[in-house]
Amino acid sequence: MEILISSSVWDPKPWVEGLSASRDITKIHVWPTTEDISKVEVLFVWKPLAEGIINKLPKLKWISSLGAGVDHLTSDPQIPSHIPITRIVDPFLARDMTNYVIMGLMMHQRSMLTHLHNQRATIWDRITYQPLKVGIMGLGALGSHLAERLVLLGFEVFGYSRTLKDIDGVKCFDATQNEEFLNHAEVLVNLLPVTPQTESILNANLFRKMPEQSYLINVARGNHLVEKDLVEALNSGRLSGALLDVFKEEPLPTDNPLWQHEKVTITPHVASVTTPESAIKLLLINFELLNNNQKLLHQIDLEQGY
Ligand code: NAP
Ligand code: GLV
Fold it and tell me: Is any ligand 1 atom within 6 A of the Cβ of residue 175?
């Protein structure tokens, strides 16, 4: 079986090396290429896919995102609806996301940026800290892992998802209970997928439903956030700050005002990065399922958009 890897952001080398060990794979092409790719049956993509690639792949049987998110595929009109699309669901991805969010939460709760500033200015200020109620939007592979760990750390945790979940120690809400959920979110962590229902969901209307002086952690996608509304909410004091890992345009343009905003902390889409060695194990299981004409693991539901 021939495969094609298209990754415009990550180095394809570890993927090629890891996948080469499989006897099912006879040839690995890496885009861009001038080779004949007409026999390719499997396409692995980490965004965005160059225009016209799909037309060159008449034998295509399976597409996988090389990350958890699939918005780069669901938003691409060239992707046909009859080909199964899978994504990466991996314990390392969940672990790393949970650790990142815990870091952001602790930095916020313990005023760590102020302490760093105070150290530079030799200021001894024993700033107090409060227990925090944390709201997690999206209780899927990543959000549910985070919720469970935050309960163990002693946070009061609230969760929100399309269908109602049951997670020990977490007060769960479904999509009909959006306002009730938001009323509790002193820190709001966004771990939703981007779909027509969730695009621009982090907007002025949502910020108004959160308690005064809440804090936002957006680790899902930039398309969830209305940046102008965030800046207004920060300037008016409605929100106390934000930790942002993802942006509408990446890399974030140097003239974007978020870079300079004193209440914003920015990281360059590194909250949780796929670990090729463990993700490849999952891809190889799916190769076997594909060969046996069985349903693939972690296939997305195109109707729901994730
Ligand atoms: P997932 O398993 O598909 O979980 C998605 C969750 O969102 C589910 O709980 C789902 O509800 C809920 N949801 C979907 N649409 C909703 C709606 N309209 N209203 C309320 N809830 C809704 O996804 P995941 O693997 O946890 O990943 C989440 C996102 O994290 C990815 O899509 C990606 O964008 C982002 N991500 C970012 C990084 C980074 O480094 N920054 C790394 C990895 C992933 P149900 O449970 O009812 O289906
Ligand atoms: C990263 O953003 C991912 O979706 O895996």
Answer: yes
